[in-house]
Amino acid sequence: MAMFTRSQTQMESREQEPPSLSPALSIRWWSKETVAVVTGANKGIGFALVKKLAHLGLTVVLTARDDERGGQAAESLRAQGLVDVHFSVLDVSDPVSIDAFVSWFRNHFTALDILVNNAAVSFNDIHENSVDNAELVVKTNFYGSKLLTEALLPMFRRSPSIGRILNVSSRLGSVNKVRNPNMGRMLQGEDLTEEHIEAMVGSFLEDVRKGTWKSQGWPEVWTDYAVSKLALNAYTKVLATRYDGCGLSANCFCPGFTQTSMTGGKGTRTADEAAEVGATIALLPPENLPTGKFFMGCNPVINSKL
Ligand code: NDP
Fold first, then answer.
1. Does residue 119 have its Cβ closer than 6 Å to ligand 1?
2. Is the predicted pLDDT of residue 16 greater than 70, yes or no?
3. How far does the centroid of ligand 1 lie from the alpha carbon of residue 255, in Å?
């Protein structure tokens, strides 16, 4: 596919980072002209990621579904001197909002370098497993990321530094959580397509409607959320295959159990710690940047094939 090539612009200059940064971040291939978009960034890991990327000197678009919450979050970062943080409203569960955001982005920026699909919902407390909101969970966590990615694909910069899609996912959506062997085989198959993934999601929602979801081999913990992330992981694999060698990478990142609203403040790490890892993965030097990988927890070295 000729859409992205590695030789169309000069590689950005490399400078040394301050010593406190993790080694991967010390190879500074990016500049202020490098543009990142982060979804669901008014709080939690998304907000921390915007802060981290802006601190590192990128131009970052903080997006949020609520104008006031998002605007205040961006303003709080600009007040810290992070003047290259921009804000736009974006509700990833609403295709009209996605279209409006892409138009806004086109009017303000010439190209996109990094897309972090971070926005997500979950309606269960730690030990609950209701699927009452399954449609909304799937619509936000899977379709929201997918539709936004597709709408922004033409905007990725043609650059040797390689465009990056980082999908913030969860190990709850790993293929080994699926107990239905046919489903597991389909997800691991080399011929996996978007149609397969959408059929899987449709079949889950049908099981929810019929009340049969508990007996069909779906993941046992936070089932609707796990299926949404399973679909997101699978979609990342399809993207990675489609754009392999074409200047665009697609990876997933599980931040691990992190203290945010989603976990009711419980967790083993802070959002800033999770964002440090997320930023490291998003900014891996072009020559070390894999595609189609699932990065787990705090150690960006541990990664596995999707
Ligand atoms: P938070 O609940 O703190 O943040 C979620 C963000 O997503 C909020 O900004 C929320 O906005 C936003 N959001 C929700 N729905 C939409 C929508 N339709 N459009 C745009 N934005 C939306 O959770 P985390 O920071 O913990 O979650 C960030 C990511 O990390 C998620 O993808 C999550 O699945 C993943 N993750 C988190 C883990 C954890 O332990 N915390 C573990 C594994 C994965 P609003 O404030 O308006 O609700």
1. yes
2. no
3. 11
Specify the pLDDT at position 26: 82
Tell me which residues are annotated as active site.
Answer: 225
pLDDT of amino acid 24: 75
Does an H or E element contain 88, and which? strand 85-89
Take atom 44 of ligand 1 and give the residue whose Cα is closest: 170
pLDDT in tens, 116-133: 999 999 999 988 999 999
The contacts found for 107-110 with CB under 8 angstroms, 24 or more apart, are 109/35, 109/59, 109/61, 109/155
Contact call for residues 259 and 217 (beta carbons, < 8 A): no
Q: Is the pLDDT of residue 2 over 80?
A: no
How many Å apart are CA 179 and CA 237, to the nearest integer? 20
- Provide the pLDDT for residue 296: 87
Is the minimum distance from the CB of 283 to ligand 1 under 6 angstroms?
A: no
Q: Is the CB of 159 under 6 A from ligand 1?
A: no
Burial class of residue 216, CB neighbours in 10 A (0-12, 13-18, 19+): middle
Question: What amino acid is encoded at 283 in this protein?
Answer: L
Provide the 10 A C-beta neighbour count for residue 193.
Answer: 13
Instruction: Identify which of 116, 87, 111, 115 has the alpha carbon closest to the alpha carbon of residue 33.
Output: 111
Using an 8 Å Cβ cutoff, are 238 and 142 in contact?
no
* 8 A C-beta contact, residue 77 and residue 85: yes
Q: Which residues are bridge partners to 165 per DSSP?
A: 115, 250
Calculate the CA dihedral of residues 284, 288, 293, 298 and round it to 10 degrees.
-50
Q: pLDDT value at position 1? A: 43
